[in-house]
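Task 17 of the worksheet. Students: predict the tertiary structure of the chain below and write it out as C-alpha cells. Keep your answer in the requested format; marks are given for formatting as well as content.
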Amino acid sequence: MMEQSSLVDAMLDHRNDLSDVKSVDSVFSSDSGVMATSEIFENDLQSITTEKLFNELQRVKEDLQSKDSEIRRANEIRENTNREIEDLTVSLFETAHSMVEQAKYTQANAEQKLKISNQTIDALSLKNSQLKKTVNELKQILNTCRSSFNMSTTNNSIDNILFREFTCWEEKSSLE
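Model answer:
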C-alpha cells in the first residue's frame, strides 16, 4: 500500500510538470503526437488517482466499520459494567441493611439479657443480704441459747416422779 501511494505521489508530482508539458506541447504541433501522449498520461494519472482515492475510500469505510463495531462493543461492555455495578450496589445495600438489622436484633437481645441478668443479680443480692441477716440473727439466738443452756446445765436434776408419769403417759399414747 505504501509503495502504491509513493508511486501515486510521484505521479502527482509529475502532474505539476504536465502543465509545463502542455505549454511545451502547444509549441509543437498536434501532429507530432506529443499531445496525445500527455493526454494518455493524464488519463492514466486520473485513473490511478481515482483508483487510489477509491481504495482510500474503501479503506476509510472499513476503518469506520471497524471503529463502529469497536464502539458498539465498548458500549455493550459499558452497559454490562453499569448493570453489574448497579446489581452489586443493590446487593451491597441489601447486605448492609441485613447486617444492620441483625446488629440491631443482636443488640436488643443482648440488652434484654443484660436487663434480666441485672434484675437477677439484684434479687440474689437482696436474698443474700436477707440470708446474712437471718444467719446473724440465728447466731445471736444460738449464743443466747448456749449461754442459758450453760446456766441450766448446772442444775441437771430430774424429778423422778414427773419422769415416771411422763413415761407412762408416753406408753399409753403409743398403744392407743
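Marker's comment: Helices lie at 2-27, 34-152, 160-175. DSSP finds three helices and no strands in the chain.
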